[in-house]
Design goal:
It contains 14 helices and 12 strands. By secondary structure, it is of the alpha/beta class. About 5% of the residues have low confidence.
Amino acid sequence: MGFKCGIVGLPNVGKSTLFNALTETQAAQAANYPFCTIEPNEGVVAVPDARLDKIAAIAESKKVVATQLAFVDIAGLVRGASKGEGLGNQFLANIREVDAIIHVLRCFEDDDIQHVDNRVDPVSDAETVETELMLADLESLEKRVPNYEKRATGGDKEARIAASVLGQALGLLREGKPARLTEPKDDEEARILAQAQLLTTKPVLYVCNVDESSASDGNPFSTKVFEKAKAEGANAVVVSAAIEAELVGMEMADRLEYLKELGLEETGLARVIRAGYELLHLLTFFTAGPNEARAWTVEAGSKAPQAAGEIHTDFERGFIRAETIAYDDYIELNGEAGAKEAGKLRQEGKDYVVQDGDVMLFKFNV
């Protein structure tokens, strides 16, 4: 699994419509009233990557397997969610289980679709949701940090580290800032901060849900969201959930023609995935042979044994080396044989840092 993104936002901003379109299902009920999504719906989709098809064609692979991405459609948050309003406790718990937050913001006007605050202001909507997440984190840390501080005075080393890094997070939250701005001073503090599962340490991708006419270049609403994202070091993309919904069920040729008519080069799914990969610092490597060509996802900075472990734990445990070909070399030299002949097939050891697009064959002994 590449990663799991929770789709959040206020009621009636297009979360479930986007979820249905992205997963090409109707698993989530899209309705024009709050809380139509009570239990989180999860959908798993293949990550589109043109490189995989090119690799498979050269390797003459019988089977092609893309890496996957999970979306979780989480019910709409409202003011007071941190105190349990609108089933808030359940929704916040669902958010805690995801790797990243896709925050859908309404960037369109439509008198037929009710807004919970009877106005369209995506920046204010974003602040409403983030405030509830910060309040939930604040309540959690105000209970935990004093306990860590007390234990630290008794000589508990781990409690001292926790008191330091979580105390920093608590200070930020009290200033109205998200805990993701916390700066751990070492790996141990980073580990403890991650284990705390704070809602506002989750990386955020803002999805500006615009009308069809704004899908190509955005609109004044989405411009404000991009300005907000830039100011806080977050990412943002423009998507029209209505267009994505229309694409569901279309043949590929019809999709491409429809997107071209709208001035779009790719689907919203592709934009969300690319932004999500960047957000979580992920990359893709490939394995290829006559039986199967497959894409795999690892975190940027992963070494060869970790990549091998994505395929099977035995590969990592008994790792010997990785025969590696850069994607461009694999394509230019028409596969493994050509790359080997040209001296582009490299024997990489345990310290090799995997690069995006690497085509790899792992040697191991267990």
